[in-house]
UniProtKB/TrEMBL annotation:
CDD domains: Trans_IPPS_HT. GO terms for molecular function: metal ion binding; prenyltransferase activity. Gene3D superfamilies: Farnesyl Diphosphate Synthase. The lineage of its organism: Bacteria, Bacillati, Actinomycetota, Actinomycetes, Micrococcales. Belongs to the FPP/GGPP synthase family. One of its GO terms (biological process) is isoprenoid biosynthetic process. Its cofactor is Mg(2+). This is Geranylgeranyl pyrophosphate synthase. Keywords: Magnesium, Metal-binding, Transferase. PROSITE patterns: POLYPRENYL_SYNTHASE_1, POLYPRENYL_SYNTHASE_2. The keyword Secreted does not apply. It comes from the Bacteria. Coiled coil: none annotated.
Length: 353
């Protein structure tokens, strides 16, 4: 049986374990006010979706590195999925989004329900955002608790918790920097954007799953270090492609408006390059305009493309994919893991959703 086939067969077990954890938490919530149980129902709904990219990555790496304790791997995979859910929920609050993947998110759902019951719009929005913040906090706490309870020796548990904490710490730093740059008080250059992507996205989406897998499997520190470097670079590729799709992607496939990043004034490598072009001055006032319409969005996208920024970012993605493939080839890791990471790099660089 191939590693990928074996991992695919574990996904139902992963889903069942995740459901078990959340169902138990919802059962506890019944002794509180009804909206708290509704919050857990929303979290269960969110957890049922998604491609399980991070959990699969962790399980694939764990197996390739010789790990055999499936229950421990499943619990670690649940922890990284719950971390992802937590950060996505908080990110929606920061970005003031009401939808996620074409449906109301927690803020949107709770705010809408409150307005239907007669609450004023601003008060309902505050209720929705408070619900989201608390939901994200609950997911973070649950993720940490799961890791802390995995049946491994104390040194390995401490190393896993350190890796998890590092990911959360650095992701928070990256998110904080992202919000600061959106104020446009300190315009970002290309190096600033790349560093922010490494912190905000790579740390929790790629570094944490691979580092946790290696530690849990008992891999030595040199392999953990190699995987950390590879993960950080793959994460930047993922974010650069995400930024391209955020402006030029097919909304039917991405589930995200191609206006949202422009309305937010999100600092990306595309914008960092386009800002130095002569045409940027003509559209600068539109960037970060919360009322930006599709006509304005088309003008901004045209300037970004005509400035050469889109071509430049595509070139950076291609170059970084080549660099990562070289790193993977030189790493002292099993052939199966090398193949998995190469496929992951290609998928991150070429995805369209």
């Amino acid at each position: 049986m191939s590693e990928m086939t074996a991992t695919a067969q574990l996904v139902p077990t992963l889903d069942a374990r995740l459901g078990e954890l959340l169902t138990a938490a919802r059962a506890r919530s019944r002794s509180f006010a009804p909206p708290f149980e509704q919050l857990w129902e929303s979290l269960e709904h969110i957890a049922r979706g998604g491609k399980r990219v991070r959990p699969r990555m962790l399980i694939d790496a764990y197996r390739a590195l010789g790990g055999t304790d499936e229950r421990a791997a499943i619990d670690a995979a649940c922890a990284v999925e719950l971390l992802h859910i937590a950060l996505v929920i908080h990110d929606d609050v920061i970005d003031q989004d009401l939808t996620r993947r074409g449906e109301l998110n927690i803020t949107g759902r709770f705010a809408t329900d409150a307005m239907l019951l007669g609450a004023e719009r601003d008060a309902a929005r505050a209720w929705g955002e408070a619900s989201s913040i608390l939901a994200g906090d609950l997911m973070l706490t649950m993720a940490h608790s799961i890791l802390a309870r995995i049946d491994v020796d104390d040194d390995r548990r401490a190393a896993m918790l350190d890796a998890f904490e590092d990911a959360v710490y650095e992701s928070a730093a990256g998110e904080h920097r992202d919000v600061w740059l959106s104020l446009h008080l300190d315009p970002a250059g290309p190096d600033d954007v790349l560093r922010m992507a490494e912190q905000k996205t790579a740390a929790y989406s790629f570094q944490a799953p691979l580092a946790l897998a290696a530690i849990l499997a008992g891999a030595g520190e040199p392999i953990v270090d190699e995987l950390t470097e590879i993960a950080r670079r793959i994460g930047v590729i993922y974010q650069l492609r995400d930024d391209v799709l955020g402006l030029f992607g097919d909304e039917r496939r991405t589930g995200k408006s191609t206006l949202s990043d422009l309305r937010e004034g999100k600092e990306t490598l595309l914008v960092a390059y386009a800002r130095s072009s002569a045409g940027w001055a003509e559209v600068a006032a539109l960037f970060g305009d919360e009322q930006l319409d599709e006509i304005g969005g088309q003008r901004l996208r045209r300037v970004v493309e005509e400035s050469g920024a889109l071509a430049a970012v595509e070139s950076v993605i291609a170059e970084r994919c080549d660099d990562v493939h070289r790193l993977i080839g030189d790493a002292h890791i099993p052939a199966a893991l090398r193949e998995q990471l190469a496929a992951l790099t290609h998928a991150c660089g070429s995805r369209d959703a």
